[in-house]
Write a structure and sequence with these properties.
alpha/beta
Length: about 425
C-alpha cells in the first residue's frame, strides 16, 4: 500500500477513542460478552476474506526474503482463524474484573471505603508480525471496557485491516461504537512517534516487538509504557535432574514454536552430568535441525559425539541473543550459583527455569531468580495467558510495576477509591 495515499488524523482517532471508552465503561458484562460473541461469529463468516488478505502479506514477505521463522509469525491459516474465534469465545467465559471490589473497610468515623476495578481508558498498542495479536488485544480490551488504537507492523497491514474490519462489523451489529477498536492504517513510522505523544487521549502504551521498539517507546513516550515481551529464556539442568525427561522439556521449549518470546534460548548444564547428557540432547535436537552454540568445554564433549547436530563454538554475544529460530546456546556450569549468576547477567527476566529432583535446589533457584515467570520442571512455553488460564493475552510484561508476566484482564484495569458517607464533614 502507498503510505502517502493513506491519511491518518491521530488527534481525531484519539478523541473518538476517548469518547468510545466512556461508553464502554458503562457497559454490563452481558453487553461486552455479546460483542465478543459477535466478533467470533464474524471471524468465521469472513475467514475467506481475512485469509486472502493474509496471503497477499505473506507473498510480499516472501518476495522480500523474510525468514521462515518470521513467516510463521505472519501466517494465518484456517485453523489459526478458527483458533482465534475459539479464543474469543473463551474470553466470554472469563470473569469480568470491572466493578470488582478489591478491598473494603469501615472507618472509625462511619465512612465506608472501597477500591473498585475500572477500565484504564484508551490503550495504544504497537506490535509487529503477528496478526493474531489484533484479535487478542481487541477482545481483552473490550472485555475490560477499554478502547484501543492499534498500530501493527507494515508486513501484516492488509491482514490487520481485514481483522479490524471484522471487529468493527461485529461492533456495529451489537450497537457499540466502531471507534472502540481502531487501527492506524498508514505504516509510516512517524505516526508511531505521534501516537507515543498522544497523552491527551491515550492512557497506556503497550509495545509488542523487539528490543528496538521497546527502547523507542521508553525514550519517546509521554504516556506510561508497559514493557516486556523480549525473552532470553534459560533452563538449568541440575545435577539431580531426570536426564531422560529433561530431553522432552528442552525439546518442547526450543522446538515447538521457536519464533516466540517464551521459546528457549540457553541451556545451562551442571558439569557432573554434562558428559552423559549433552550427547543425548544434541542427538534429540538434531532431529529438528537445531544448531547448537556451545562453550568450549561442551564443544569438546560434542565434537565427536554430537548425534548429527550442527555444533559450533559460541561467540561472545551468543548468550545475549533472543534467537527466535532453531538455535540454542549451551553452557556448562559448576554450581547452581554459577547458573543463577549467568541468568542474572544475560536474562531479560522473561521465562527462566530449573530441571531438578532436589527440592532444596528448586527452592533456592525460585528465590534467586526474579523473572516474570520462574519454572521448576516445566517448559518455558507455558508463560502464556491462555496456558495460565487468563484467556488471550495482550502482552507479557517483564517490568516490575503494575503488571508482570502474561497480561490478561486484570492487568488492563486500574482502580478508583469509592467513599460512602452520611453527610460526613472533615474536622481539623
Amino acid at each position: 500500500m502507498n503510505e502517502a495515499g493513506i491519511q491518518v488524523d491521530l488527534n481525531a482517532m484519539g478523541q473518538a477513542a476517548k469518547a468510545a471508552s466512556r461508553k464502554l465503561a458503562l457497559l454490563t458484562t452481558a453487553q461486552k460478552n455479546a460483542a465478543l460473541l459477535a466478533i467470533a461469529d464474524e471471524l468465521e463468516a469472513q475467514a475467506t476474506t481475512v485469509l486472502a488478505q493474509n496471503a497477499l502479506d505473506i507473498a510480499d514477505a516472501r518476495a522480500k526474503g523474510v525468514s521462515d521463522a518470521l513467516l510463521d509469525r505472519l501466517l494465518l491459516t484456517e485453523a489459526r482463524v478458527a483458533g482465534l474465534a475459539a479464543d474469543t469465545r473463551k474470553v466470554v467465559g472469563l470473569p469480568d474484573p470491572v466493578g470488582e471490589e478489591i478491598e473494603g473497610r469501615l472507618l472509625p468515623n462511619g465512612i465506608r471505603l472501597s477500591r473498585r476495578r475500572i477500565p484504564i481508558g484508551v490503550l495504544g498498542v504497537i506490535y509487529e508480525a503477528r496478526p493474531n495479536v489484533t484479535i487478542d488485544i481487541a477482545t481483552l480490551s473490550l472485555k475490560t471496557g477499554n478502547a484501543v488504537i492499534l498500530r501493527g507492523g507494515s508486513e501484516t497491514l492488509r491482514s490487520n485491516l481485514a481483522l479490524v474490519a471484522v471487529i468493527q462489523a461485529a461492533l456495529g451489529k451489537v450497537g457499540l461504537p466502531l471507534e472502540a477498536v481502531q487501527i492506524i492504517a498508514n505504516p509510516d513510522r512517524a505516526l508511531v512517534g505521534q501516537l507515543l505523544r498522544l497523552d491527551q487521549y491515550v492512557d497506556m502504551i503497550i509495545p509488542r516487538g523487539g528490543a528496538g521498539l521497546h527502547r523507542l517507546c521508553r525514550e519517546q513516550s509521554t504516556i506510561p509504557v508497559i514493557t516486556g515481551g523480549i525473552g532470553i529464556c534459560h533452563l538449568f539442568v541440575d545435577a539431580s535432574a531426570d536426564l531422560v525427561r529433561a530431553l522432552d522439556v528442552i525439546e518442547n521449549a526450543k522446538v515447538q514454536r521457536p519464533s516466540v518470546c517464551n521459546a528457549l534460548d540457553t541451556v545451562l548444564v551442571h558439569r557432573t552430568v554434562a558428559a552423559e547428557f549433552l550427547p543425548s540432547l544434541a542427538e534429540r535436537l538434531a532431529r529438528s535441525g537445531v544448531e547448537l552454540r556451545v562453550t568450549l568445554d561442551a564443544l569438546a564433549i560434542l565434537e565427536d559425539n554430537g548425534g548429527g547436530a550442527r555444533v559450533v563454538a559460541a561467540g561472545p554475544e551468543d548468550f545475549d541473543q533472543e534467537w527466535l529460530a532453531l538455535i540454542l546456546g549451551i553452557k556448562i556450569v559448576d554450581t547452581l550459583d554459577e547458573a543463577v549468576a549467568h541468568i542474572h547477567a544475560h536474562s531479560t527476566e522473561h521465562s527462566d527455569g530449573i530441571l531438578t529432583n532436589d527440592w532444596g535446589n528448586a527452592t533456592r533457584f525460585v528465590n534467586a531468580i526474579n523473572s516474570a515467570a520462574v519454572f521448576v520442571n516445566a517448559s518455558t512455553r507455558f508463560n502464556d495467558g491462555g496456558q495460565f488460564g487468563l484467556g488471550a493475552e495482550v502482552a507479557i510484561s517483564t517490568q516490575k510495576l503494575h503488571a508482570r508476566g502474561p497480561m490478561g484482564l486484570e492487568a488492563l484495569t486500574t482502580y478508583k477509591w469509592v467513599v460512602y458517607g452520611d453527610m460526613h464533614v472533615r474536622g481539623a
